[in-house]
Amino acid sequence: MSDLYTLTEKPEAEEIVMIAGWRQWADGGSISSGLPQYLIDQHDARKIGEISIDDYYLFQLPGAQHFLRPLVRHKDGYTESLHNQRNEFYYTEVDGKGIIIFLGDEPHMNVERYIQTFLAAAKELNVSRVYTFGGVYAQVPYDKERHIHAIYSNPEFKDELLELSIGLSNYQGPASITSYLCKRADEQNLDVIGMYTFNPMYQFGSFEESSKSIHIENDYMGWLGVMQRVNHMQGLKIDLSDLENLSEQMILNIDHKVEQLDRKYPELMVQEFFDRLRDDFEEQPFSPLEDIWEEELRRLGDQFFPSDDE
């Protein structure tokens, strides 16, 4: 505990993992910000702490006011609400395993202090491993499993990640917050895995012509892909059936949008574009053998040993 963060509760589960995301620039498909909030809501996770927002955020930078300043709401001159940046820890348990969900705002400055504070809180909470998510937009099929690349703090993760249809990043350039976190976590012997999804976005006209674009705000298929892998790697039993249903509905909605665009703008040859995209795309499905066997054994058990309710 320090002035840099506060904890109102320290969970006592034998095994605790953390799922962390930020409202950040690498947030394609809202996988970094939307997925943690979804998990918080789905599991009625309770807030157990936060990182102080002091000294991490800018209020004024010429040309960037809309991206930096807190959001305010007025009514008849009265200030009803002011939404500052937040960096909050939530807690829930699934089948006896502790899960801390962190959702924060990527810092504008003092990133070293921010990351050291995050790591200190994770250690005090007895976190054994941290999973983070990021997303980048790309022209990939919307109805195929997302390609996922990873970065990590522990070299021993390499083979395990490759077995789960996860590519290993060779990116070089400006660091993301997870890149920074992985390096500092390695120095402190804390395991961190950052997964990045490639999320669909298509622009068939100029950027001003929003009617000719397809933009997926919440890429549920990307969310599902990373959570399947987290479940598998940690032996968790987080129910993903809702994400499966949301993914199926998302595909149907985009199918409808594609049909509309194809009828309204035949010169764009939208359907032909997606046909070529699918032909050139190599899907990397997630199907670990042990999960398949477990599902099949459960099905056979239900068939030959029905429950009393049946």
Mind sketching the topology for me?
Elements: E1 5-7, E2 16-23, H1 34-42, E3 46-51, H2 65-68, E4 71-75, E5 78-83, E6 88-94, E7 97-105, H3 111-124, E8 129-138, E9 148-152, H4 157-162, E10 167-168, H5 177-187, E11 191-203, E12 213-215, H6 220-234, H7 241-264, H8 270-279, H9 289-304
Summed up, what is this model?
By secondary structure, the protein is α/β, with parallel strands linked by helices. It has nine helices and twelve strands.
What does the main sheet amount to?
10 strands, mixed
Share of β-strand residues: 15-25%
Query: What's the helix count?
Result: 9
* Range of helix content: 25-40%
The coarse overall form would be: globular
Report low-confidence residues grouped into runs of 5 or more: none
Distance between the termini: 51 Å
What's the mean pLDDT score?
A: 89
Structural class: alpha/beta
Q: Rg, please? A: 21 Å
* Tally of DSSP β-strands: 12
Q: H/E element string?
A: EEHEHEEEEHEEHEHEEHHHH
